[in-house]
Amino acid sequence: MAGTDIGWGKVFIASRREKVTDSQFTEHFDLLLATGIRRGDSYSICSGRPAHWAANELVERFLQSKCDSILFIDSDAQIEGDTLGQLRDLEEGWAYDVLQAFYVRRGWPPEAIWMHRQADGEYKNVAVLQEVTLPVDAVGLHFCLIRRKVFETLVGPDWFYYPRRTDAKAHRKSEDVAFCEDVLAAGFKIGSTSKVRTGHYSVIPTGWESHHEWLK
Fold first, then answer.
1. What is the 3-state secondary structure (H, E, C) of 134-167?
2. From CA 199, how far away is CA 82, in angstroms rounded?
3. What is the pTM of this model?
4. Which of 64, 83, 186, 215 is deepest in the core (most CB within 10 A)?
5. Interacting residues of 110 by C-beta distance below 8 A, sequence separation 6+
6. CB–CB of 102/194 below 8 Å?
7. Rounded to 5 degrees, what are φ and ψ at 11?
8. Helix H segments across the chain?
9. Using an 8 Å Cβ cutoff, are 192 and 136 in contact?
10. Mean of the pLDDT values across residues 77-103?
């Protein structure tokens, strides 16, 4: 299975809200809804739930809609009104079934969330030096497009979950990494792009520029 060459279709914008949401995020999310959506798009917000519960609930709402893809946006993402437009219009991204915009971990150092799985099963975030769109082994849900067929293929309703502690490494995996392992096992393609960038609110927003400052 693989992505198509016809884009992402109608997008269901799904926002998981933390207990405390930065006011700047709310302003930019509203701007995205006001200026960055297209005919047939929809949106939903889930608040006050654990991260994986919120993600699963938003997927269920998405599958009840007529949308073709879901865009997850975490409520600590620094975005602009046209960020969705940039990601959905990136033609080289259409080859993937899951596509993540560039972002860095919250806090310091601003390490890129660009994950490759090592031979021992651990994940390593690599340095991102250029504007590229490439396959990766896992992504986060910070600002991420996923096609409907992924959720229709995988067994729900617990698409997102924390792995049981069957070994010393399993409990260290996040709900999005566990999901990505299932996605790859089902034959889908996961990608990341540094051509579309978001920040990550912590004490200060960090992103592409601070990542490269740290590398220097």
1. EECCECCCCEEEEEHHHHHHCCCCCCCCCCCCCC
2. 14
3. 0.89
4. 83
5. 104, 200, 206, 207, 210, 211, 213, 214
6. yes
7. -110, 135
8. 23-35, 51-63, 83-88, 148-153, 175-185, 208-215
9. yes
10. 96
139 Cβ partners below 8 Å, 6+ apart? 98, 99, 100, 113, 115, 176, 180, 190, 192
Token representation of residue 86: 């940039």
Q: What is the percent of the chain with per-residue pLDDT over 70, rounded to a whole number?
A: 92
> Closest Cα to residue 44, out of 80, 12, 78, 11?
12
Give yes or no for a contact between 162 and 175, defined as CB atoms under 8 angstroms apart.
Answer: yes
Cα 106 to Cα 25, 52, 159, 199, 203: the distances in Å are 15, 18, 24, 9, 9
- The 3-class SS string of 70-96 reads EEEEECCEECCCCHHHHHHCCHHHHHC
Question: Tokens standing for 79?
Answer: 């975005």
Residues 5-35 have pLDDT tens digits of 469 999 999 999 887 787 888 999 999 999 9
Six token digits for residue 57? 């609930």
| Count of helices and strands (H, E) across the chain | 6, 11
Q: pLDDT tens across 154-207, in order?
A: 999 999 999 866 555 544 688 999 999 999 999 999 999 999 999 998 767 778
Answer yes or no: is pLDDT of 1 > 50: no
Pair of tokens at residue 208: 């592409």
Taking a C-beta distance cutoff of 8 angstroms, is the pair 141, 176 a contact? yes
Average pLDDT over residues 46-64: 95
